[in-house]
Amino acid sequence: MPVAKPEPQEPRVIAHVDMDCFYVQVEQRRNPALRGQPTAVVQYNDWKGGGLIAVSYEARGFGVKRSMRGDEAKRVCPGINLVQVPVARGKADLNLYRSAGSEVVAILASKGKCERASIDEVYLDLTDAAKEMLLQAPPDSPEEIFMEAAKSNILGLLSDAGEKEKNARAWLCRSDADYQDKLLACGAIIVAQLRVRVLEETQFTCSAGIAHNKMLAKLVSGMHKPAQQTVVPSSSVQDFLASLPVKKMKQLGGKLGSSLQDDLGVETIGDLLSFTEDKLQEQYGVNTGTWLWKTARGISGEEVEDRLLPKSHGCGKTFPGPRALKNSASVKGWLDQLCEELSERIQSDLNQNKRIAQTLTLHARASKENERDSTKKFPSKSCPLRYGTGKIQEDAMKLFETGLHEFLESQNTGWSITSLSVTASKIFDIPSGTSSILRYIKGPSSAAPPAIPDSSSVPEDPSLDNDVFVKPIHEEQCQPSTSQKEDNNTHSASAISAKQCQANEEKRISKKLPEVKGTSSILKFLSRGQSTLHEKRKSDGLICSHQGPGSSSEANKAEEHNVPAEAEDRNNTSSCAEPSGSNTWMFNIQDIDPAVVEELPPEIQREIQGWVRPSKHPSTKRRGSTISSYFPPARS
Ligand code: TTP
């Protein structure tokens, strides 16, 4: 259920940028002969010409829709070019589109905080850039307004087609505008400049919404497509929301939206205005009630996250109709392929971005032979993620078997699987300089040691790779899950003080690392020590911070880990000291993969246990044997 976030005191400028018919544009860049032609990208499939997943605006003009299959599109538009999605391992290979999306993100991220929301859309927080423009070079003359900005659609600005540009120019440099509108005008100019840069450097067009919050920016970014932008001044918010169907609002597309319609007779967001906050809270609980009340007024405090990388990686495949999988051998065949791809992707994330995924989840859609109409769902199953293709394949199959067992409820009946997906989630950053963790994480099936990441490289994009990619699922995957947020909060509950780190860190850092060999055995580790360890971890939320060159300040790092700086002083349980005056790097003990811990030398393991159970092992820390020696900060 949605929860209202506190709104910031200061006005913000937020943009939502969405690529136009993205996959088609990528294909048109590969084959310029397709430019300006009715074109659609088709999902690999030989049934009725495959399913359309992206349709060019020229083809839309002929009535071609994404819901059509290739054969139908040809009937509607005989001249249409149908381009097949690249295929690898018998399923769609979206790498081409992912890296095209990364090109765009690299440009958009140049002007402010950037959150990659899906394969082809981002949120930008342009508040600082807009403030700077307002201070340094505010728009003051209609004639000098950047051409693309002058084409903006400004919500609530009445003008016929002939006057539109003239009015927009005037609006963008009104001297009598309030501060909020002035910032918004600067934001609109910045977004227009960014969109032109994207076009020049990638050949892709995009559309954008510019508003004071994410919710409004997202709602309008698709309003004038393709290649246009829409601005939402505060004064036009109420009119805009008044007629907006509830189901169009993010978070109201499902059961909550249906309940608003059925139980309260609310059809548009404007209809919600007639309910008091108390009434909405009474109906939907305190949090959701407040969220609805605020949403009706266009208020949203949701922040743009600084995130260019995915929160999870997923690979999926659907098996509709006759393609359904009906025995374990065929499930294993497909799962192996999906896991192989997932393994490659998390390994590449580790190599390029120094990020480790901790949880493997298996989702499936299934039905029982004798109960086709049953609503019982195949339960999603998760386990700690072990690196290495073979291990992931093995664990995924076990998860499948466990899920199937539950799903069948001990009935001896036939079954069929119509979709399978594996996801790697709970991804965390290895603190900078912890090169040795990369060595430890490398399981026997990982062929090569992870490369030292190149900080200048453009990060991988966050898209999931579902064979038939359904947007809402995709978005969901890109959002933090409640449990993830809860976890973060748990981390913040207590943290080991940076001041507790022991002195002479640099000496230890320069100590030669011993060679430690072993196999990753996270499951073994967890079955042995998980319950105590996890309970303690949950209550302790340990963080250890260490000195290291070139990293950010303690407070900043604490923020990165959602740890209030003051919380660090409350916990005197750990044992690392910091030489004063130098920078700090931190890691959260909860973020260390237990498999990694198990492979460390015994004295290090004892030390970690000491952090986890400080009262029982107050003096397990020994000079020269602390964990920091093994996860040392980078040396410049
Ligand atoms: P969208 O942004 O939803 O659509 P689009 O970019 O094709 O067109 P528009 O101009 O209307 O925004 O999706 C981005 C890409 O994601 C799309 O080009 C293809 C892919 N996609 C799928 O593979 N399956 C889907 O169900 C959807 C909705 C999109």
TrEMBL record:
The biased composition feature labelled Polar residues covers 490-503, 572-585
Renumbered to this chain, the Basic residues biased-composition regions fall at 614-624
Q: Where in the cell is it found?
A: Nucleus
Domain UmuC: residue ranges: 14-253
In which family does this protein belong, per the annotation?
A: Belongs to the DNA polymerase type-Y family.
Catalytic activity, EC: 2.7.7.7
The protein here is known as DNA polymerase eta
| Enzyme class, UniProt record, top EC level | transferase
Q: Which cofactor does it need?
A: Mg(2+); Mn(2+)
Query: Which residues does the annotated region (Disordered) include?
Result: 445-506, 534-585, 607-636
Q: Which residues form a coiled coil?
A: none
* Pfam families, per the entry: IMS, IMS_C, POLH-Rev1_HhH
**GO BP, one example?**
DNA repair
Q: Which UniProt keywords apply?
A: DNA damage, DNA repair, Magnesium, Metal-binding, Nucleotidyltransferase, Nucleus, Transferase
Regions of biased composition (Low complexity) lie at 445-459
Give the organism the record lists: Miscanthus lutarioriparius
Q: Which reaction does it catalyse?
A: DNA(n) + a 2'-deoxyribonucleoside 5'-triphosphate = DNA(n+1) + diphosphate
A Gene Ontology molecular function term for this protein is: metal ion binding
Top-rank taxon of the source lineage equals: Eukaryota
- Bias (Basic and acidic residues) ranges: 556-571
Primary location group: nucleus
